[in-house]
Design a protein that fits this description.
Length: 498
């Protein structure tokens, strides 16, 4: 009996030992399987019946876009892929992003030319995703479609943690032919959105925009993108268009972007490089806008919409055709702009074609404009306009102070300040009439580089703009070039700290 009892004990231990080994083997197999499928490959010599390994890659990106699992990376090898891609998979918070990118340093062009529209998508797009999470798209060339409404990349519906990085989008032709479009509908928002390091050019977004966020979108960052040579607005953040959503773009940052030659092909040409239309709670900082119809516009095109809490700071806005900084709804029956701050911006020669004002204030109230440099010169028509206030009372509704104004090569019959009911060329007359700009200056800012067309906007040692500002809670920690915003007791005027 003792021997039998001993054998039973030994048998139990052996069985337990075998179970542990089996569980470990299964665990290892699971890990190996996870590692095996964490990478997919696509190549022009592949086949969609392959497993998507490096040795046996898929042929199309679309195959990978419906096969990839959370946490995986899809590597696309060198070449031009003539296809349109609908992302049909999602990552998740536990396992992470699904990333689509070129293999190593390979150049990958996703080319939409000659292909029919996918009828299951909203718009005619090269890359499209709807209600997807944890997707990263990076380092592609995306080009060549002709559309009536479409985008190089379009995000639609809802989604969380979407990243569009370091890609080039061009030759998107037709009408409403946009580069990157994010449309957030009612219900869940599009959130934790990052659009960084992309270049968008040679597109026909009119009457839409080259890079646009519209509707139910929150917690976003648009940064370090270059948008140029497009036939309407460069970058736009929109709310109040009920065809899409009753919600609006909010709680985001637009930083470090460069927009140039964004000019509208209709309506006399009033496209802004960066435009806020109906959105709220956004920081717009350290952007460079030049050679557009207009520089930065904060407006509200839809009735009943109130744009609030926009901070526009440390931007360079120069050599635009009609105006530099535009604030407010443009008609009495449309929206309003309120409780926004426009601080430490440099505006320079933004009336090259038609003088609408370095600063143009429309239907807006309770806004602050401080620490800005506003410098202009006559254009070919000898027009000069520093500040235009076309509606409502400048004297009551907004606060202007600690700014520096100057006119280079002034003309006898130029108008410096065009207010609602009268125009003034006299600096002291303007201040006394409006009660504004009590601590402001009318002096040459003495830039280092601009007179030599270097466009660096640094201040000379004896510039009156040095230490002439008001230290404000919303002026930011760094200037346009990323250096400390205050070097001394007081902040300098303009976007660049001495």
């Amino acid at each position: 009996m003792k021997h039998l009892y001993k054998e039973n004990i030994q048998s139990i231990f052996i069985k337990l030992f075998l179970i542990v080994i089996i569980l470990n083997v299964l665990g290892c197999a699971t890990i190996e399987k996870s590692n095996f499928f964490s990478q997919y490959f696509v190549a022009l010599n592949g086949n969609d019946n392959n497993p998507g390994t490096e040795e046996r890659p898929f042929r199309t990106i679309q195959k990978a876009a419906r096969s990839a699992i959370p946490g995986s990376t899809v590597f696309i090898k060198q070449g031009r892929y003539n296809e349109r891609v609908v992302i049909q998979v999602s990552g998740n918070s536990e396992l992470g992003f699904i990333t689509f990118c070129p293999y190593l340093d390979d150049k990958v062009i996703i080319d939409g030319s000659g292909l029919p529209r996918n009828k299951n998508t909203i718009g005619d797009c090269i890359i499209y995703m709807e209600d997807k999470d944890y997707i990263r798209i990076q380092e592609f060339d995306i080009a060549n479609i002709n559309v009536k409404d479409g985008s190089g990349i379009r995000v639609y519906g809802s989604g969380s943690h979407i990243e569009i990085l370091n890609s080039k989008i061009y030759e998107i032709r037709g009408e409403n032919a946009m580069g990157i479009t994010v449309y957030g509908t009612d219900g869940k928002s599009v959130n934790h959105l990052l659009i960084d390091g992309n270049e968008i050019y040679d597109c026909d977004p009119a009457k839409s925009e080259a890079l646009t966020l519209n509707g139910n979108i929150e917690e976003f960052q648009i940064s370090n993108n270059i948008v140029h040579d497009v036939n309407n607005i460069g970058i736009d953040m929109i709310g109040g268009e009920d065809w899409l959503s009753t919600s609006f773009v909010r709680n985001g940052i637009c930083r470090g972007n460069t927009v140039f030659r964004a000019r509208s092909s209709y309506g006399g040409g009033y496209a802004a490089g960066i435009y806020v239309d109906g959105a709220s709670n956004i920081i717009i900082e350290r952007n460079r806008i030049f050679e557009c119809d207009m520089g930065i516009e904060i407006g509200a095109e839809n009735p009943g919409v109130l744009v609030r809490n926009i901070i526009v700071r440390n931007n360079l806005i120069y050599n635009n055709d009609k105006a530099g900084l535009i604030i407010g709804g443009y008609a009495e029956d449309l929206g309003r702009v309120a409780n926004c701050v426009f601080i430490n911006n440099t505006l320079y020669k933004n009336n090259r074609v038609k003088a609408q004002g370095e600063i143009w204030i429309q239907y807006a109230y309770n806004n602050e404009l401080k620490n800005n440099i506003i410098c202009t010169s006559p254009n070919a028509k000898l027009e000069v306009l520093l500040l235009q206030n076309t509606v409502e009372s400048l004297e009551i509704e907004n606060e202007l102070d600690y700014n520096l104004y100057f006119v280079i090569y002034s003309t006898e019959d130029g108008v410096y300040f065009a207010l609602k009911n009268y125009s003034l060329k006299d600096w002291e007359g303007y201040r006394q009439s409006t009660g504004q700009d009590d601590h402001s200056l009318f002096l040459n800012p003495q830039f280092k580089g601009v007179p030599q067309e270097e466009e660096d906007f640094y201040l000379q040692e004896n510039s009156p703009a040095i230490d002439a500002g008001s230290n404000h809670s919303q002026m930011g920690d760094t200037d346009f070039y990323g250096k400390p915003r205050v070097n001394g007791l007081q902040v300098d005027l303009g976007a660049v700290e001495h």
